[in-house]
Request: fold
Amino acid sequence: MSDKFRALLIEKTGDTQSVAERQLSRSELMDGDVTILVSHSTVNYKDGLALTGRSPVVRRFPMIPGIDLAGTVESSSHPGFQPGDRVLVNGFGLGETHYGGYSEVARVKGDWLVRLPDAFTPAQAMAIGTAGYTAMLALLALEDAGIRPQMGPVLVTGATGGVGSVAVSLLAGRGFEVHAVTGKSQEAAYLEALGARVILPRAELSGAPRPLAKERWAAAIDSVGSSTLANVLASIRYGGAVAACGLAQGMDLPTSVAPFILRGISLHGIESVHMAMERRQLAWNRLAQDLDRAKLDAMTRSIGLSEVVAAGNEILAGQVRGRIVVQLAA
Reply:
């Protein structure tokens, strides 16, 4: 097998960032006890930020971006893995401080690896990726907060995005009445096919928030942040819960304590990068159990390594529906 492999490399000179495909060798990989032949990766919103440099996601240069990967173990000195094992990685600084998934070969710490569930192909695992894994972490948080289908509808913001698309499908599959928020009215049929019962325009929740509004939803999964999240919080029913996992509208949160102390709602922050392995494995096991494969395939398109940069720009511009899988193996 050739020592050389293809990878995207982000380099920075002064304030100028560039991204290009390079031929690298295994000796240039970073430290780790497992080497993986990467077959697939994906493009998340965070990847878009890294590829464009619009946010300081990448914290060392040069860097191979890509916060997710799936593939087969080529070699391992880790006691838990051996050549031929099918594995995936989400987070742990991949594509930020450690060479990431937009590469035909990766070397990582075995303690970061999740065994690929038998229910998924590597391509399907990356169709889920960090976005879908985060959606499941959000659903688990709502379940832990006591949210059940009989309590009322659950709202999903940013519903045509990666997190939102998977969240709609997961919630509908668990029997929840799903209300989906989108700025793309033309995607109503897509969201309904995933299981959404009610489609709401983005403008309805993106304006200046009030401390409290009419009680509408038992819970919500929000990937937008800012005024949208504030409006969602103001409209959650007594005793409800919100799982927050994104900042597409902004990092600010112009709200008040009113929803928390007058309606007893709870806000759960969803962090996926350094999540404990036990919870991480639970999320992937639940995805294998709950996620409709046909719906997953319907929300996914595949691209090659040469198309990744363009896809990163598209996802930041809100032009991506569902999930993008990057195919690295021939």
In short: The chain has a mean pLDDT of 96. The longest helix spans residues 122-144. The chain has two domains: 4-116+299-327, 130-269.
